[in-house]
Amino acid sequence: MSQKFLFLLISVVLSSWVLAACGGAAPVQSVQAANNGGSQATVAANGPDTDGDSIPDSAEATLGTDPNNNDTDGDGQNDLTDPQPMLAENPMKEASTTVGFTITSILVENNVNPTGGDAPDHLELTLSNQSGTDLTDFDVYYTIKDLKTNDMQAYYRPLPGFSLKSGESKALHFDNTGQPDHFSVNPNSMFYTDPNQLQVEATLHAKGFAPQTASVKKDASDAETGTD
Fold first, then answer.
1. Is 5 left (phi over 0), alpha (psi -120 to 50) or beta?
2. Domains assigned to the chain
3. Single pTM value for the model
């Protein structure tokens, strides 16, 4: 685990322990985090741990990790032992150069709901199937970069159940509403907590076809909420 992330983790859980002790809260649980040398640093943590990664939900909000996903960035590593839990490498490997679909639109703000009303900002891609066949087995890799500080986060995830019929155009959403064709995101990511201007880039892939990439800037603004 990176020294910076480990230090922040220990600081957060120790703060939680002190506050809980002062308030007479329930007994604390033990949390272990691997340091750079490979040994274990044991700290005390209090409160629910929804995703079971041994990091309490309250600490995940401060650390920037997802309290509902024990592998926030989708790289196959548990957040507690991942040296960079919000910075996955792109695992997509596709030999085909055939274009089966295109990304015709990418939005990260000024979204609208199905009735035409305003919707909270979220990553939204509109796809058009040009392959002549139905497409399945999609996955996505997207990055979020702060254009002022150059900080970056990167996430990967399969998109189970998402399909695109031959000739169909359809929108794909990344938020936490749980609606059809909406896929969950880290509610503590830079997208929702960073007020600076952001560059968001998404690479979408369907098995057997060339990945397609689109990017867009998100205006500097106040922090958003992770719901649609």
1. alpha
2. 3-63 (no CATH), 101-218 (2.60.40)
3. 0.81
